[in-house]
Structures are given as structure tokens and as C-alpha cells.
Amino acid sequence: MKSVQLLELTLKRGRVLCKSVYYTASDGFDGEFHCAFAPGVHRLVGDIDSGVWAVSYLLSMYCHTPKYFSLSEPPTVTVNGNTLSLEEFARFACYLDRSYPLFAKTAPVCRLIQNGLRRTRSGQSLEEVQALFGISPERFDRPLTDMGNELPQAMAAVAYSQGKDVFCFPWMSEKRLAEIGEKLPPLLGTLDRLGKIVLLPLGPQAEKRLP
User: Rounded distance, CA 121 to CA 83, Å?
Assistant: First the structure.
């Protein structure tokens, strides 16, 4: 299947235990819910338990942490008009948090990206991906645990090298957004230009501070 140009999600009542390295929250849906996403950055604004995090977490982590989901019936996921199970959809999506299995590896970032490029046979060079995501040379050969405020860029670069099309962020508060600082807007711009779908759950105060 070609890259994701239209993603639709339909589900009914359910609860999700959403987790990141910063927060844990019980989130979910009280009735039938439908959303659709085209390539671009989608700001999902709401409190930590308002449902916005549940959308991002469901699409990216369902097959990795199924015990965290209690759904009244299986959701319907449609990609470019084709209905997929959440397990089938997993190959398109990633969760930009260290809890995502792809980011649990201890190898240097440059090696993770190189492995991804070899796997997908994209034709891009390691240096091109480094420049594309603005990863500094002094951090490129470090593991993800040592990337500091360049961690989101590094995770996105690793996922990009693996051919991911849907980039799901964990929910972010105003404080968490401030910790990432000036690194987030350029990353969002890069993913937008690449034609990726980005789901960005934000608290109301955090959304006001994002350009």
C-alpha cells in the first residue's frame, strides 16, 4: 500500500490507560467517535483525560500494550479507503515516546537510522536524514537516552527511516512543551513537508504557547 493519504478511525465506548515517560492517565470515549486525518499536523487540544490522548495512543500503541485498552467493540481503521485491523495498521504508525518498542534499543541513533534505511531501501543516506531532522553531529552517535532536548527529533528520524507515515505524540502539558522548547516547531514543519500525518495531543495552555 502507498503512503497514508487519508486515515479514518471509528469506535464506540471504551477506556484507554495512556502512558508516556512523563504521565499516566485513564482516558477514553463515552459514545460513538469518528475522526479523519489527512497529511499535516493535527493539534488535538484538551485536558489529559478528554479523549485527545486516547486517539493518539490507540493508533500507535494498541498492538504493543493491548492490556491497557478496554473497548466495547473493535475500532474501525481505514487507510486510503481500505479497512485494516489495528494490528495491521501498526506498521504505519509510531508513538514518539521512549515507551514505544522501537525506541527501547540502546544502539546509537545513527545506527538505528542506518538499520532502518537498509530495511526500507529508501535510497537516502545517513547524512541526509541527519540534516533533514536537524540532529547535531555531537549527538548523532549517542543512544536515545543521551539525546537531551533533541530526543523528539531523533525518535522521529528513526521512525522515518523505518518508513512510518503516522507520527503520534503523547499528551503534552505547558510545562512539558517548555522542556522541549524551540525544537518542536521545526520538527513539526519537517514532518509536514514530508507529507506525514502528525497527531499532537496538547493541553489547552500548551496549545496557546505553540506557534
Answer: 27
With beta carbons less than 8 A apart as the criterion, state whether 96 and 172 touch: no
What are the pLDDT digits (tens) for 47-83? 999 999 999 999 999 999 999 999 988 899 999 999 9
Helix (H, G, I), strand (E, B) or coil at 8: strand
All three cell numbers of 109, joined, read 541513533
**Residue from 65, 181, 194 nearest 124 by CA:** 194
Query: CA–CA separation, 120 vs 163, rounded Å?
Result: 7
The owner of cell 503534552 is 172
With residue 191 as reference, give the H or E element that holds it.
helix 184-193
What does 168-210 look like in DSSP terms, one character per residue? EPPPB-HHHHHHHGGGHHHHHHHHHHTT-EEEEEE-HHHHHH-
93-95/166-168 β-pairing: parallel
pLDDT in tens, 158-170: 999 999 999 999 9
* Long-range contact set of residues 29-32: C-beta below 8 Å, sequence gap at least 24: 29/54
Pairing of strands 82-84, 14-19: unpaired
